[in-house]
Amino acid sequence: MAEVLEVHGLTITAKDTNRVLVRDSSFSVDAGETLCLIGESGSGKTLTGKALLGMLPDGLLMAGELSFGGEVMSGYGKKEWRQVRGRRIGVIYQHPEQALHPAIPIGRQLVDLLRSHLPVTRHAAEASARAMLDKVSLKDTDRLMKSYPFQLSGGMNQRVMVAMALLLKPELLIADEPTSALDVTTQSEIIALLQGLVAEEQLSMLFITHDLLLAGELADTIAVMKQGEIVEQGTAAAVMHRPKHAYTKQLLNCRSSFRFTSEEGAYLYVGNR
Ligand SMILES: Nc1ncnc2c1ncn2[C@@H]1O[C@H](COP(=O)(O)OP(=O)(O)OP(=O)(O)O)[C@@H](O)[C@H]1O
């Protein structure tokens, strides 16, 4: 399968303290593949995602090579990043307010996004926006196009954010803990939606989570991060059922539905979460 994203030796350092926040991290995402980056809070997942969007905060230094669609992005300037971010790499955050403007109706946000990247008429952009809202299973699109984010539930806003992320038909979707702030039922609905869209659009996805079981449900491959380093990576089946690193075993043991059986050296799945 063709590689969409390749990260080689990504290292992120705080300039003032010289603290290494992400160390020599290498991974790749193939076309149509979902890679889950998992690890506890502070392990460097979000910074890795930000590096891939050219959005690292000032004060951090990046080294290593990032390639997307065969093109090296590591040396990109602001203009090149703007052409990739949002257009070729879509992004979904934990909180919709990170992506949606609170004082602009949903419809206008979608239309403006389309028209800022593509030479389309307002009428055509509105039709595409409605079609995309429909695709993320939001009903009553006429009313929705005129609604503000605060008038929608958390789950609906999350769906709008998915619609925004996919509107420009990106090749890669970066989802940073997109369901962590949602209740369990809504979380399952959003995960099912993402799984459906990824399959339908043949999208590649980098899914960032602290939840190894969720990673097991979604991922083709999993990379486990601890204190800025990838300590284990492999197919989802290998990482979930034959974990090698003590930290991965610890993450699995934290979830009650998995139990480590020392005689067999394997994890047994003993029910749903
Ligand atoms: N702008 C910054 N300057 C200095 N250190 C930072 C900066 N941003 C993040 N860090 C530090 O880098 C480390 C990794 O942060 P990051 O946000 O990537 O972790 P994470 O794995 O995404 O955690 P979480 O799940 O809590 O979001 C943390 O120790 C964090 O405090």
From TrEMBL:
Residues annotated as transmembrane: none
Keywords per UniProt: ATP-binding, Cell inner membrane, Cell membrane, Membrane, Nucleotide-binding, Translocase, Transport
Record CDD domains: ABC_NikE_OppD_transporters
Family annotation (Gene3D superfamilies): P-loop containing nucleotide triphosphate hydrolases
Alphabetized GO MF terms: ATP binding; ATP hydrolysis activity
Subcellular location(s) per record: Cell membrane
Protein's membrane topology: Peripheral membrane protein
Family: Belongs to the ABC transporter superfamily.
Protein name, as recorded: ABC transporter domain-containing protein
